[in-house]
Prior knowledge:
This protein is of the alpha/beta class. The chain has helices spanning about 5-15, 25-30, 80-95, 115-130, 150-165, 185-205, 220-230, 255-260, 285-290, 330-335, 345-350, 350-365, 370-395, 400-420, 420-425, and strands spanning about 35-45, 50-60, 65-75, 100-110, 140-145, 210-215, 235-240, 245, 280-285, 295-300, 320, 340-345. The strands form 2 sheets. Strands 9-8-7-6-10-11-12 form a 7-stranded mixed beta sheet. A 5-stranded mixed beta sheet has the order 1-2-4-3-5. A hairpin with a 2-residue loop joins strand 7 (about 235-240) and strand 8. Helix 6 (about 185-205) crosses helix 7. The two termini are about 35 Å apart.
Amino acid sequence: MANNAFERALARLDKAAERVDIPPETLKRLHFPKAVLSVSIPVRRDDGSLEIFEGYRVHHSDLLGPGKGGLRYHPEVDLDEVKALAFWMTCKGAIMDLPYGGAKGGVAVDPKQLSMLELERLSRGFIRRIADFIGPEVDIPAPDVYTNERIMGWMMDEYSDVVRRRSPDVITGKPLALGGSLGRSGATGRGGYFCLQELAQEFDWDPEQTTIAIHGFGNAGQSIAHLLHEDGFKVVAVSDSGGGIYNDSGLDIPEVIKGKRAGNSVEQVYCKDSVCDLEDVEVISNDELLTLDVDVLIPAALDDVITEDNAEDIRARVILELANGPTTLEADKLLEEREVTVIPDILANAGGVTVSYYEWVQNRSGDYWTEDEVDQRLEKRMRKQFAAVMDLAKELDVSFREAAYCLALKRLGAAAEALGTQALFNGKD
Ligand code: NAD
């Protein structure tokens, strides 16, 4: 089994390729990232010392349009992971039928160890290093793990300084005051919520009897928790990097979110308060949360949390992958054998890139939409593409994950074919 994150990610594509009729060249193209940039970013710490951080930006494919994908700040960021994430963005854009290719970036850093000023210097320094590699028609970054609106605002401002032109369309997920879109901050969670609603309808579930556990309580985790809670679903457990909380009759999600946002010294960028500080709940570990007896488990933190070591212990009937790559290949097989339904990341969390696309369209046209308009467009597109994946899963008798890759491959294959295949160049087409 390949032990590099990018090769592991490609293995799923190769498997799906056996099911669909696409030009073989499509697969060949997707096995190689289009371009990879590796940079070092010198940052002056507040105590006067100099620290160097390593950062990456990868363009995986531009078959369907300019690169699109987030920027991650995490100590474990490395090039292979960024390549895998960029590849998933290619698939996501294709599944959602967006005019985008796939890209991703990140910096190996623990941002919680930086002051606000250091974080700003790092963010601006990173953009200066990659400025020639990104651009509104080339590659458009967005937030990801431990980056957020404020950081996107700094980055857009820095890029605009570099190119000497105000460029809101170079980055999405910006603050509203700097050209952000209404509805963007909750879009990933909202997209996942529509998927779950569709599935609940398919399975004829009663929301009030449906229990849900959410691993990771940041942007994506909080927004889906809020929507599910409002819709009457029972969110019984949530967790963050500090651990989790559980209440079998359902948590008071607005209170948990309030507690989480309570703030501290760097409250404007990160809320360091752990959900574990709340009262009237049972404190559980992250491992315990993953194996709770619930209807739906929502991984919404990091990759590789459901592995061959814990897949047999997962008791949820459905896994909705809001995080990117939370389930390993080995775990996938074990879950499939046990007939656990997995709504894959490349579909479940595609609400974020979809509203990023809407933000980009608004920036480029100068015409800004209401929140309702954004939400309605997202809902329409999400339900349509969820149905397309579900229909293909039924038609081919494969898992949602395999069907999602098949759909992506069909759309990417059509683009590759339009550019010409071996048959065309041999005069046989
Ligand atoms: P975030 O930084 O806002 O939140 C991450 C959350 O995960 C935090 O609550 C953090 O405490 C928690 N966490 C970190 N390490 C953990 C651990 N070991 N165990 C449990 N919890 C842990 O990030 P986000 O934007 O919500 O992204 C979460 C996931 O969703 C990532 O995989 C990201 O790639 C994916 N995603 C996000 C978006 C988006 O628009 N934000 C879009 C698509 C996919």
